[in-house]
TrEMBL record:
It comes from Phytopseudomonas punonensis. InterPro entries: DUF4062 (IPR025139). Residues 5-93 form the DUF4062 domain. This is DUF4062 domain-containing protein.
Length: 373
């Protein structure tokens, strides 16, 4: 009988006891744990041991990541890098690459220190911006800020960048804080039970939703047929019925377009919203929005091998716009969808598109300035 394989990724030395307890829990649950220290991984004779661990991830069904106070061993291929990945971070990147569903656990006290760091940095940037009125790139500002920030532990310099990546995810981005293994166990029990329940109910719900959608469409088609039937032998009402039919079809199309545009703009502007700050000297105009959208096609060519594009690049046509954020990356697929929607719109509707886009840019997110230390 096939059983789910669960890859457990974490630093080993400081989380040894947690890993041992987690292995026992996974086995008791009827799943197969995959952990390097227990010989669960095939070590290819032609590959580095760290790459062998990474390669095993795509053969597993679920990925459990535990982030504690230690950054861990540096990935062997990054020793010459100024910002090297740890082995655990490389495993996480591999998980993202192959799309294995993941469960992320972060030490509660580490998360508290990380939140303090983010709030402090946000306030420092806001003060700097207000004083200088000059645009500061995210990388330059962060590098300068980190030089003087009192990190509780030296390893946090690297771990916080790891947490930045976790919080930048668009999907499957839930994480759980923990202080003891019991909290990890409780969370996994609930999530795996819900996963099982969802699998049982999923097909039924999808089928019912499909039936409901079909029923709505059939009702509309039936009403259209009735209008057309009224035209037969009755020229007096023919023009009026055609107007009604055309109006109903246009209304359906407009509603569908509105929903699609809202979904795309949510994807662009709400990803990582909790740690964004937008500083706008003045609201952007429809003309500026048009310049931004006309530049998207060239940006997609420039970043054709990337999954995301920096928000600073996208909004570069706006001179009086300053942006700082930890996660200032926009998914390329969202931009591609926006571009496709624009191309399919009649030219007379372009101004409405620019208006909706500029409205989203001009929204000021709420910022919590209180720093709890």
């Amino acid at each position: 009988m096939a059983t789910p394989r669960i890859f457990v990724s974490s630093t080993c030395y400081d989380l040894q006891e947690v890993r041992f307890q987690l292995r026992h829990f996974i086995s008791e649950f009827g799943f197969e744990p995959v952990m390097s220290e227990f010989g669960d991984i095939f070590f290819d004779l032609k590959a580095h041991v760290q790459d062998a661990c990474k390669n095993e991830i795509e053969k597993t069904d679920l990925f459990v990541l535990i982030i504690g106070n230690s950054y861990g061993s540096i990935y062997y291929g990054h020793h010459s890098h100024s910002e090297p990945d740890s082995v655990t971070l490389q495993e996480f990147r591999k998980c993202l690459e192959v799309g294995v569903p993941k469960y992320i656990f972060i030490n509660k006290f580490l998360k508290h220190d990380f939140d303090n760091y983010k709030r402090s940095k946000a306030k420092a940037y806001a003060s700097n911006y207000t004083a200088s009125k000059k645009d500061i790139s995210e990388i330059d500002f962060t590098e300068g800020y980190n030089k003087n920030y009192p990190f509780p532990q030296e390893s946090y310099r690297h771990i916080f960048k790891f947490l930045d990546l976790v919080e930048s995810l668009d999907t499957n981005n839930a994480y759980y804080t923990f202080e003891s293994f019991d909290e990890i166990k409780t969370s996994l029990k609930k999530q795996w039970a819900a996963l099982f329940y969802d699998a049982l109910k999923g097909n039924k719900n999808i089928s019912q939703l499909s039936i409901n959608n079909i029923e709505v469409k059939l009702e509309k088609i039936e009403s259209y047929i009735e209008l057309i039937a009224k035209d037969t032998g009755n020229k007096t009402n023919s023009k009026e019925n055609k107007k009604i039919l055309s109006s109903e079809i246009n209304k359906d199309h407009t509603q569908s377009t509105q929903e699609e545009l809202s979904r795309i703009l949510d994807h662009i502007f709400l990803s990582g919203k909790s740690s964004r700050i937008r500083c706008i000297d003045k609201p952007i105009t429809n003309t500026e929005a048009a310049e931004i959208l006309s530049n998207i096609e060239e940006l997609l060519k420039k970043y054709k091998l990337s999954k995301t594009i920096p928000i600073q690049e996208i909004l570069s046509p706006i001179k009086d716009f300053h942006w700082y954020t930890v996660h200032a990356e926009v998914p390329c697929n969202a931009l591609q969808s926006l571009l496709s929607l624009k191309k399919n719109l009649p030219k007379e509707d372009h101004q409405a598109l620019y208006s909706e886009f500029s409205k989203r840019v001009n929204i000021h997110p709420l910022i919590d300035d209180e720093i709890p230390f």
